């Protein structure tokens, strides 16, 4: 008997180091699959079809929405972004855990549909650290950076929609924390019920 | 700022190897304190005051109940058993996690009083394994052993009152699972709220 996998959603303000954590997490946990989003925005030079995103045109995306093929979707700057339903449900059914790295609006939609989805909000250890991370990776004006930081601080409000909060003090610790959360969620009574039923069913004399 | 510790309750049918798991757990987790129960039953030869139990007389136990000094208590075979409130609350307040190894009736009373208590039900990997463990440690008649096993199987019903189910396949794995549960519970949004508030409060220019 295969227990269904867990649907894991990871979000977090910019400057949290989310993508590094997600990358290591997928490397380290062998029962975890990363869902690749679909988008209508054009691919950047370094991006590969099916790695960063599935790139589809506007008409096709709207057809998929209409046919219920998107688990969640949102529109930013005139482009659609969303999670294709098929792979996610296939993997979960096979007992794999599935990770979505999506924004808070998408996360809320997932939770509405699947109450057993596990929502994790990743935050920086301090705003100074978030600032340092943003400075380290971008060549943008001081004004843009301050704007990003102000948005990141606002985004902390969204933590309230999440089940768990993980502080990205170090990538390793954050990955370890998410691993613990995932393990704990698998040990919840609801998921373990079939195992207990099996234990009770075995006749006492089965030797 | 100290976050309050977690109150952890571990129960399980006989033959599960509960006490071995609890012993290793307390050894391995340095922020975890083991609560010692009070009882009115007389001490056995090998038992020490304050190690296995606090031994008190009937009148004193009933005084403690009347004064609200017991977090939970129950009566078995004419003797009281219960959890003294003072130490548990002191440790939790200091940020230590506190472990209670108690029966299902006590566990339910704890959960009624403290919804944030974490209830873990430890079960054997199979009834054959439970039987082997009971055989290994006791010199009792086949009839008594079969009676114990029948009770253990009935006790599996009680799993429904618990938050998490841990299978004691090996002691190390069970301890690791409980550690994961404890870590996850510490990362729940409710407990992390003060940290997030702190992040938001720091002025952006704090360098």
Task: Itemize the secondary structure elements and their pairings.
The structure is a homodimer of 207-residue chains.
Chain A: E1 7-11, H1 18-28, E2 32-34, E3 38-39, E4 54-55, H2 58-66, E5 70-76, E6 79-84, H3 85-93, E7 97-101, H4 104-113, E8 118-123, H5 127-137, H6 142-155, E9 164-167, H7 171-186, H8 189-201
Parallel strand pairs in A: 1-7, 1-8, 2-7, 3-4, 8-9
Antiparallel strand pairs in A: 3-6, 5-6
Report the CATH superfamily of the domain at 7-35 and 95-201 in chain A: P-loop containing nucleotide triphosphate hydrolases
- What is the CATH domain class of the domain at 7-35 and 95-201 in chain A? Alpha Beta
Q: How big is the Rg of chain A?
A: 19 Å
The total of beta strands of chain A comes to: 9
Strand content of chain A: 15-25%
- CATH fold node name of the domain at 7-35 and 95-201 in chain A: Rossmann fold
């Amino acid at each position: 008997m295969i227990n269904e996998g867990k649907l894991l959603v990871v979000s977090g303000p910019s400057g949290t180091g989310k993508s590094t954590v997600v990358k290591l997490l997928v490397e380290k946990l062998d029962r975890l699959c990363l869902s690749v989003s679909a988008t209508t925005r054009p691919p950047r030079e370094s991006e590969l079809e099916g790695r960063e995103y599935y790139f589809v045109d506007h008409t096709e995306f709207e057809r998929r929405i209409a046919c219920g093929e998107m688990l969640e979707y949102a529109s930013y700057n005139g482009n659609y972004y969303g999670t294709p339903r098929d792979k996610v449900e296939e993997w979960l059914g096979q007992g794999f855990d599935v990770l979505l790295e999506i924004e808070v609006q998408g996360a809320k939609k997932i939770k509405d549909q699947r109450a057993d989805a596990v929502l994790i909000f990743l935050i920086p250890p301090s705003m100074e650290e978030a600032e340092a991370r943003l400075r380290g990776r971008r060549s943008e004006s001081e004004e843009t950076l301050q704007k990003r930081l102000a948005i990141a601080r606002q985004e902390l409000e969204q933590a309230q929609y999440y089940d768990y909060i993980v502080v990205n003090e170090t990538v390793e610790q954050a990955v370890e924390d998410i691993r613990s959360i995932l393990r704990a969620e698998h040990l919840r009574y609801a998921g373990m019920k079939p195992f207990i039923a099996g234990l009770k069913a075995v006749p006492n004399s089965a030797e």
